[in-house]
Amino acid sequence: MRSTSNPAFRNLPTGRAAGYGQYGPSVGFNQPQGGVPGYGMPPAPSGAADRPMTVDDVVIKTGISLGVALVTGVLAAVWAMGQVSADNVGVVGAVMGVSVLIGLVLSLVMIFKQKPSGPMTLAYSAVEGVFLGALTGIFELVYHGIALQAILGTAGVFIAMLVVYKTGAVKVTPKLTKWIIGATAGVVILMLANLVLALFGVNMGLRDGSTLSIVFSLVVIGIAAFNFLLDFDMADRMIREGMPSKWAWFAAFGLMTTLVWLYLEILRLLSYLQND
């Protein structure tokens, strides 16, 4: 499989190595659905655990994961707003810290084990929903309406990039893949450097609401958006190589990591713009 900047999709087993055997390759996001039902492939036996994954599998699993994140996010936002109003900011901060830590552990386990898991994907979605929801609740108290703007902005970018990929307006070539991976690595290094230097009182101007920080956020949002192209392409290849349907959970996990990153950056950008 082609490389991707999303660590969730690195070094995945392919087709038969993943446990797929007798049903032949499926058809992906960008392929015609010809022939018989089942995305152009003979139907697998009912209930077969190793039937090839399809577009529907990826869409459904991603939708479920996103739904879980939205539910926990809304609940966490309402709770956080109540806690802040009651001057219990420390409690909110502790919950956010714990949820980030749990999410990091879950993501690392998924990435290094390279095995699909519905429960772990949903658990990751739930704790990330708690973190983003609590953070959004705090932002909403300061910038009224920012939550809806961030949600709509994230959904808009996701849909736009899906359309771009599906229509072939931008082809995921090896050259583009390398560019996106390099750009992603670059902004991650800059963010880590900014965080470390901030601990020593050094301000790089990347996260202080200045014009430079607005430009930086726009660049990060653009790179995160292009990462969706690699995520779609990787899921597409998983489908076409006939990986078992359970791997749709792994594709959903990969897409969720990019969605979380994009939403967080859009929320940050909106706060900068409302400060001006």
UniProtKB/TrEMBL annotation:
<feature type="transmembrane region" description="Helical">
    <location>
        <begin position="121"/>
        <end position="139"/>
    </location>
</feature>
<feature type="transmembrane region" description="Helical">
    <location>
        <begin position="145"/>
        <end position="167"/>
    </location>
</feature>
<protein>
    <submittedName>
        <fullName>Bax inhibitor-1/YccA family protein</fullName>
    </submittedName>
</protein>
<feature type="transmembrane region" description="Helical">
    <location>
        <begin position="179"/>
        <end position="202"/>
    </location>
</feature>
<keyword id="KW-0812">Transmembrane</keyword>
<feature type="transmembrane region" description="Helical">
    <location>
        <begin position="214"/>
        <end position="235"/>
    </location>
</feature>
<keyword id="KW-1133">Transmembrane helix</keyword>
<dbReference type="Pfam" id="PF12811">
    <property type="entry name" value="BaxI_1"/>
</dbReference>
<feature type="transmembrane region" description="Helical">
    <location>
        <begin position="58"/>
        <end position="82"/>
    </location>
</feature>
<keyword id="KW-0472">Membrane</keyword>
<feature type="transmembrane region" description="Helical">
    <location>
        <begin position="247"/>
        <end position="264"/>
    </location>
</feature>
<feature type="transmembrane region" description="Helical">
    <location>
        <begin position="88"/>
        <end position="109"/>
    </location>
</feature>
<dbReference type="InterPro" id="IPR010539">
    <property type="entry name" value="BaxI_1-like"/>
</dbReference>
